[in-house]
Design goal:
The protein has helices spanning 2-25, 35-53, 59-82, 84-91, 105-110, 115-124, 168-174, 178-187, and strands spanning 95-99, 102-103, 133-138, 144-148, 161-162, 165-166, 196-201, 207-211. The protein is of the alpha+beta class. It starts with a helix and ends with a strand. The relative contact order is 0.08. It is found in: Cell membrane. Its main location: membrane.
Length: 213
């Protein structure tokens, strides 16, 4: 009888511990989990099994790996929030799979994303013919964002500044030099990009800036 109550106590304790860990990790849908999130979930499942099965060891001692995992996850999330480079390394970057009805097989190969996956996700978006697609972007979560061809097709707007760091790819898309961009900032009275949360050029060549709070 004692073993049964011990098992019940440990199971309930693990349930509470995992609930707290997930709650502190923040809100995210299952389909939007990053690779780091999946690693954490798998390890938590393993630790949970050990915590319940190893009745001959201290329960608090077995919960320690969960606490360490939570701290590591919160630390990586904090670093990702502060550094776009770390965020890109941990989560990756969105990839353009279809542009103006043309499939980029090279990018698909680089992402290890096969044609069957593409066709399935196009059908899920209500698309039968990929030639109807103006733009299809494979997000870091694995979800495919699809934009159909219209009279006013969507524009690819690459951010020029993210979290106070200059994005050279955005300048390349605009065929703009850094000197010209900094001149535009000075015309807006901005002299330090570290204070900018995000900046991008709109379809009408108007510069949009959002400052850090």
């Amino acid at each position: 009888m004692l073993d049964i109550w011990t098992l019940v106590f440990r199971t309930f304790g693990v349930y509470v511990a995992i609930f707290i860990v997930f709650r502190l990790m923040g809100k995210r849908e299952i389909g939007e989990l990053s690779v780091m999130d999946l690693v954490v979930f798998i390890l938590l499942a393993e630790f949970a099994v050990f915590s319940v099965e190893k009745t001959d060891q201290s329960f608090l001692l077995l919960l320690t790996p969960m606490a360490v995992l939570l701290v590591a996850q919160l630390f990586s999330a904090y670093i990702s929030l502060k550094s776009p480079k770390v965020r890109a390394f941990l989560d990756g970057r969105p990839s353009i799979i279809i542009k103006n009805g043309n499939i980029d097989e090279r990018e698909m190969k680089r992402q290890r994303y096969n044609m069957d996956d593409l066709l399935v996700q196009l059908r899920e978006n209500g698309i039968i013919d990929f030639k109807q697609v103006e733009l299809a972007i494979l997000e870091t979560s694995g979800k495919l964002s699809v934009f159909e061809k219209k009279d006013n097709p969507p524009s690819i707007i690459e951010p020029i500044i993210i979290d106070g760091e200059l994005q050279t790819k955005g300048l390349e898309e605009l065929n703009m030099t850094e000197e010209r961009f900094y001149q535009l900032l000075e015309e807006r009275g901005v002299y330090d990009i570290k204070h900018i949360s995000i900046a991008q050029m709109g379809p009408d060549n108007q510069l949009f800036i959002d400052f850090k709070d």
